[in-house]
Design goal:
Length: about 700
């Protein structure tokens, strides 16, 4: 059960968790739901304040959440996108007012403590410091009490409560108030950092268009994008977002594509140009004909990818969650031993001294720095990548990107532009150039393959589809069509051999389409493709990042593959590959990879989907790539620029570096103060200052991943 995928007729659903202001609370909700019968999958993301769940009974799961965290508001349906994930859990003015009032009372108490202490039974001292203590710590005390009532003991609220009440018991009132006040200040800054991070990711999601100006009978009316259908005409005024994918039928304008691609340079579009939802028309009005429903539009897919990415947690994130679950009880046990054993075993040891040292350990044992900053770091990495037009589908893939040592590229459409042009026609056996071109165009009339499009473009007009009565597409080889009473074959040299078609020329430089009619060889057509401008730079950057093997996989012939490989500088290439051969090639690369090293594959076509899915990190060129490739991919590059692969690796490595910086900092400081506390060389003030300080540094360091 728990995290296992089910075989039931259930659906993955997503909920927004308002007022989720504590990372431990998020872990508790996830842990509780995993134990509920009928829950097949659950993931709670504290950084995004979201819940993804697959269960037989969602209402029962929501009731369980209310039992664990009554203050958390569960929003479903369209509310998940409309709601602000930072709502309800953080009121900066209210928190500052409480902190300021507590600080004033605390300062007055410290200044006038001798006089306050001289009152009968030190009543005035207890009143002043008690007021400061309750102002700064009432929520902590109340939360600790509620959690104990629900059977949950070991969390930061309980630790702070025990530590400060212990200080009160040994009459260290300033220390008790100071610890609680510092803790409150630290919580304030942590909440503020999480709040800002959530707002940053929310800003990414606000690229979603709110309305569409649909034209009907010469009149425009505003409707939600979800109500617009394929074939409808939509008007976009200057400054408005394009609400759906479509084709421009009137007007021209510069469009801002940064929300989709991360590129700041605007693009000029005119009649006939495709445009995508989320682009902004900056200089002119456009009229577009809708080509995709909103749910299938580019912006809708991006929103889903970004919102759902953090549900896939990295191994480091999972480890820290489990570590925190055991770390706090262990530290509690050590603190209890420090409080009780030395006074019993050591002659002259004072009970109050060792209780004080034990209270220091309780303060140090708070796991906030780790529990908050680690998921926040991955959250920031995913958000920062999406700003650059790189969509990473999960925290685990950020770690995999950081470990990439081998990258394999598809050639056509990935390293090359995929824009083919007919450069030469060589007839044979009495056929003319025009006859060879005509036969190839009639056979390819119904194909969307880049080579087919180049042949049709060279022919100058699209033949009627009815000319070919039957068409058989042979994956990776070519096409066989029945045109009138003639059987026409257009494809590779291998297809000619498979059909026993006699021909004199086999090896031809460049991409070639051989043509045969009724078993007679008619000649061949040479089609040229152009390498993308940033490919040499992309290869250099990958090598500078320490990627050891860069391989090109292509279905093209040996001569074409060798020429392209030498031009762009890859380490190796494999030519003449069918889709299943590419999978085998990646399997071989995976087998050769050393421990911990990852293998990535970059492709764009529907034929690349299997190998994208097989690689450790499948990377799809999203802007022009096929839906199948994007669905199978772990990372989607919206600009179709190979140089973005190196940038994705840099984002992954920066995120991993930030995460391990936080882990190292937190464990080092906490370890040091455990030793100092037991040795009696640290005060509770110093311990709470170090603990809160480390948490703040870790949280603010994690937010660097967004930039």
């Amino acid at each position: 059960m728990g995290q296992q995928q089910n075989q039931h007729e259930t659906e993955m659903k997503k909920y927004r968790l308002n007022n989720l202001d504590c990372a431990t609370c998020a872990a508790n909700i996830e842990s509780r739901l995993r134990g509920v019968e009928g829950v097949h999958y659950v993931s709670v993301d504290f950084a995004a304040a979201t819940l993804r769940i697959e269960a037989d009974d969602d209402e029962r799961a929501i009731r369980e959440i209310k039992k664990v965290e009554p203050a958390v508001e569960v929003l479903a349906g369209s509310d998940t996108r409309r709601a602000n994930p930072s709502e309800g859990g953080f009121d900066a003015r209210r928190e500052l007012a409480r902190i300021a009032a507590a600080a004033v009372a605390f300062v007055l108490g410290v200044i006038f403590r001798p006089q306050l202490y001289d009152t009968p039974h030190a009543i005035a001292e207890f009143l002043v410091f008690g007021a400061a203590y309750l102002l700064s710590g009432w929520e902590v005390l109340a939360t600790a009490a509620r959690n104990i009532y629900r059977g949950r003991v070991f969390d930061e609220n309980f630790l702070m409560t025990v530590a400060t009440l212990g200080a009160v018991a040994i009459h260290e009132l300033p220390e008790a108030v100071g610890v609680m006040l510092f803790f409150k200040v630290g919580e304030f800054f942590q909440d503020m950092a999480v709040h800002r991070s959530r707002r940053s990711i929310q800003a990414l999601l606000e690229v979603r268009p709110n309305y569409a100006n649909v034209m009907t009978n010469g009149q425009t009316r505003q409707v939600p994008p979800e109500e617009v259908h394929v074939g409808d005409t939509v008007v976009i005024k200057p400054g408005e977002k394009i609400p759906l994918d479509g084709t421009v039928v009137a007007g021209s304008s510069q469009v801002d594509t940064s929300a989709l691609t991360g590129e700041s340079v605007p693009r000029l579009v005119g009649v006939g140009a495709p445009v995508l939802a989320g682009m902004i028309s900056t200089t002119g009005s456009l009229t577009i004909e809708v080509t995709q429903e909103f749910g299938a539009s580019s912006i809708s897919k991006i929103l889903d990818l970004v919102e759902n990415a953090t549900s896939r947690k990295a191994d480091t994130e999972k480890f820290i969650t489990k570590f925190a679950r055991y770390y706090t009880p262990i530290m509690m046990s050590i603190a209890l031993a420090v409080a009780l054993l030395p006074p019993i075993l050591l002659p002259g040891a004072r009970f109050s001294d060792w209780v004080y040292r034990a209270l220091i350990l309780l303060v140090v044992s708070c796991p906030c720095a780790l529990v908050i900053s680690i998921p926040l770091g991955y959250f920031g990495g995913i958000g920062g990548a999406s700003r650059r037009g790189i969509l990473v589908k999960g925290s685990d893939f950020l770690d995999a990107l950081a470990a990439l040592k081998t990258v394999a590229f598809d050639k056509t459409g990935t390293l090359t532009k995929g824009v083919f042009k007919v450069t030469q026609i060589v007839p044979a056996n009495g056929f003319t150039e025009s006859a060879v071109l005509r036969l190839a165009a009639e056979a390819e009339a119904g194909s969307n393959h880049p080579i087919a499009r180049s042949i049709l473009e060279a022919y100058g007009r699209k033949p009627a589809l009815a000319l070919a009565s039957t068409v058989e597409e042979i994956g990776g080889f070519g096409i066989k069509a029945q045109i009138g009473n003639q059987e026409v074959i257009v494809g590779s040299d291998r297809l000619l051999h498979d059909t026993n078609t006699e021909h004199e020329v086999c090896e031809v430089g460049g991409t070639v389409a051989h043509v045969a009619v009724d078993g007679t060889y008619a000649g061949y057509i040479i089609i040229s493709d152009e390498i993308k401008e940033d490919v040499p730079q992309a290869i250099r950057e990958l090598k500078s990042l320490g990627v050891e093997d860069i391989v090109m996989l292509t279905g093209d012939c040996e001569a074409v593959a060798e020429a392209v490989a030498q031009t762009i500088g890859v380490d190796d290439y494999r030519a003449g590959l069918l889709p299943e051969d590419k999978v085998d090639a990646v399997e071989a690369l995976l087998a050769e990879a050393r421990d911990g090293a990852k293998v990535g594959f970059v492709g764009d076509g529907v034929n690349d989907a299997p190998v994208i899915a097989r690689a450790d990190v499948g990377i799809a060129m999203g802007a022009l790539g096929s839906d199948a490739a994007i669905e199978a991919a772990d990372v989607v590059i919206m600009t179709d620029a190979p140089a973005k692969v190196a940038e994705a690796i840099r984002v992954g490595r920066k995120t991993r570096r930030i995460v391990w910086q936080n882990i190292g900092l937190a464990l080092t400081v906490k370890g040091a103060f455990v030793v100092l506390g037991i040795a009696g060389l640290a005060t509770m003030w110093e311990a709470v200052f170090a603990d809160v300080g480390v948490a703040l540094i870790a949280v603010f360091n994690a937010t660097r991943a967004l930039r």
